[in-house]
Design a protein that fits this description.
651 residues; 22 helices; 15% strand; alpha+beta
Length: 651
């Protein structure tokens, strides 16, 4: 940590010498933990002069803060044992400001390290006129989790300028971090200049984004050429009532439609607010997928029992050692996949008993079923999924709509009748038809009576809640709906319009039910007639190591002995996020080995060696049929059916 300190000092002194031709030591730089200064945690480090400088900085009336803070919410894996330092005062300030009023379900992102520096820098001005300029991850620009932060920034500053340098590889996989990102990283980068000037009563927001396909050198040259903010053709932005800054491509009528759900309605007791669904939940987040998921029940059971034994030994060792408070440095990371929750369970001495009934079916990824050991302690966050599928018996009658959320992938919906896993890159919210008590009793319909009333008034008292459920599923697949509101859907849960024509509504209900049926029962679909091309020089088998598509995407290479050709190209039109359904199967059904734990996963079935090959054929059938149904829906139900011809014509 000393090297950056020395380099910064030398750079400042060299720049001063270049301008004045005189050398003078710079005594303003401090070797310190910046956030620690706000916590009163700074120790007397380095030399006495540094301690004096730190105190002088704390006493100064700072008016300008410039920095390039780190970007990370925390360590990716608990087993790294490399957590961010805790800053209780800063975290409390974020809780009271950037996180408190957020509409997001997950609220960990506002505690990202760079966000803490925004909070610290703003507080450091102490209400004085001044400037904060930070080069950061710019995920706060458009993600729902930062809605309250965006609101606060425009309250704390009178002018905000943001230069968006893009480079977000997660949003655009065609980009390369090393080529297109100014720092060679995966997340987007931006420069924020926030000004507080008491003589300005109006709050203004200015934004400029460089071309998405620019390379790193082009972006740096742009900054060098412009020199200062006056050289940039800023666009003034007008945030909406939900504190969305970038509203390009968003349609205001979206918020007038029927919301699928809301945090307020979900938490309301004995009252129904205006939403389609009362309850919804994130998918299951285990924090140790390679431990609690597997294709094989015997392998999974043996692994869970070994995990329980190793975990119990760690509790015993911790108790015998006198229950040391520093659990992070005490526990062994060799055998156990630790998480924050599991360490807390250890401290509470929560032992685990193996229960074979806890092994349940789960939809791990689209069109990929695995077995899950579904139990507390081993699963970090189960949400309220237990009230959707409290037992395997409920899987025969309940259905959920899994909705991919987040802005990294295009949003999609998929029906399931088993426990859903939390999807990567943003997560997923699950909307069930039924909810239950913990023991499987007290079954309740999750479509609200308020929603039923809206459909009765619009169409007919004969409309049922199952009709509404299928209608929602149909609209979530409607191509014009998905395309028109793609920007709205990145920032909010879907809002579902009521169609003007009853015939259009009934068509959407029918198609939605057909889509749901084929998606739920994909394993019973008829195999698509692909051509089996066998290599006569290799002994024939259907075992999979790692399948792949040919470059022209007309065939799937199963293994050295077998290729499935004549793949219909329309099947790739059925996409779930960044992949087609077929590509999800190819990606998930492969033999893999976790590098850290050495745990292997093998999807091949001894009792059914051709299962994966037939699954490929079935998913091709499902994909082709889905495309046909979606195209038919688009022809029968158009945007005019919910906007009206006059409104649509104006746009």
């Amino acid at each position: 940590m000393l090297l950056p300190y020395y380099i910064a000092s030398l750079n400042i002194e060299h720049e001063y010498f270049a301008k004045t031709n005189e050398y003078e030591a710079f005594e303003g730089i401090c070797f310190a933990d910046t956030l620690g200064l706000a916590e009163g945690q700074q120790l007397s480090l380095f030399v006495e002069e540094n301690t004096e400088r730190v105190q002088r900085e704390k006493d100064a009336q700072i008016m300008v803060v410039i920095g390039n803070p780190p970007y990370n919410v925390g360590q990716e894996r608990e087993n790294d044992n490399n957590k961010n330092r805790k800053y209780p005062l800063i975290d409390h300030r974020i809780h009271e400001t950037y996180a408190k009023a957020s509409k997001a379900t997950l609220n960990t992102k506002p505690y990202d390290a760079y966000v803490k520096f925004f909070r610290w820098a703003t507080d450091r001005l102490q209400g004085r006129d001044g400037v904060v300029c930070l080069v950061t991850n710019n995920s706060f620009l458009d993600q729902t989790a930062f809605d309250s932060m965006r609101k606060c920034l425009l309250q704390d500053f009178t002018q905000i300028y943001h230069l968006d340098l893009h480079g977000n590889v997660r949003k655009n996989p065609k980009l390369s971090g090393t080529i297109h990102n100014v720092f060679g990283i995966q997340v987007g980068v931006g420069i924020t200049i926030a000004v507080h000037a008491s003589n300005h009563s109006n709050r203004t927001l200015y934004y400029y984004r460089v071309p998405e396909d620019w390379r790193k050198t082009e972006k740096l040259n742009f900054i060098r050429e412009k020199e200062n903010i006056s050289g940039i053709a800023w666009r003034e932005m007008k945030p909406d009532e939900r504190h969305t800054w970038i509203t390009d491509g968003m349609y205001s009528e979206f918020t007038t439609f029927l919301p699928m759900g809301s945090k307020e309605a979900k938490s309301a007791k004995n009252v129904e607010l205006g939403t389609l669904f009362k309850s919804y939940s994130l998918g299951v987040s285990t924090n140790r997928d390679n431990v609690v998921y597997d294709f094989n029940i015997q392998i999974l059971a043996a692994r869970i029992q070994q995990f329980i034994e190793d975990y119990g030994a760690e509790i015993f060792r911790w108790v015998r050692a006198g229950k040391p408070k520093d659990v992070d440095d005490f526990v062994s990371y060799e055998k156990i996949k630790w998480s924050r929750n599991l360490k807390r369970d250890l401290q509470h001495e929560r032992y685990i008993q193996f229960d074979k009934n806890a092994i349940r079916e789960s939809l791990y990824r689209p069109y990929t079923r695995k077995l899950l050991y579904y139990a507390d302690v081993l699963n970090d966050e189960r949400g309220t999924i237990s009230s959707f599928f409290p037992s395997s018996l409920t899987e025969t009658e309940n259905v959920i709509i899994i909705l991919k959320i987040g802005s990294e992938w295009p949003r999609f919906a998929l029906a399931a009748n088993v426990i859903p896993c939390l999807l990567p890159q943003g997560g997923s919210q699950c909307f069930p038809f039924y909810t239950y008590s913990a023991d499987g009793s007290n079954r309740r319909e999750n479509i609200t009576d308020w929603a039923l009333q809206q459909f009765h008034e619009k169409y007919s008292p004969e409309v049922t809640k199952w009709n509404i459920f299928h209608y929602v599923y149909g609209m979530l697949h409607h191509p014009q709906y998905r395309e028109r509101y793609k920007e709205n859907l990145k920032r909010d849960l879907p809002h579902i319009p009521l169609l003007l024509r009853r015939e259009a509504f009934e068509t959407c209900v029918r198609v939605g039910k057909q889509l749901m049926d084929i998606h739920l029962n994909y394993e019973q679909a008829k195999e698509y007639r692909l051509k089996w091309v066998e290599d006569e020089d290799v002994p024939f088998n259907t075992c999979v190591e790692k399948m792949r598509l040919t470059p022209d995407r007309t065939a799937v290479v199963v293994n050295e002995s077998l290729t499935l050709s004549d793949i219909p190209q329309e099947c790739f039109q059925y996409r779930l996020g960044n992949r087609s359904a077929l590509e999800w199967v190819i990606d998930q059904y492969q033999v893999s080995k976790d590098k850290r734990s050495g745990i292997e996963s093998d999807p091949n079935r001894i009792d059914d060696p051709e299962y994966i090959v037939h699954l490929v054929e079935k998913v091709v059938t499902v994909s082709v049929e889905t495309v046909k149904l979606v195209n038919a829906l688009a022809q029968a139900v158009t945007v005019e059916d919910w906007l009206g011809e006059m409104v649509a014509a104006k746009e």
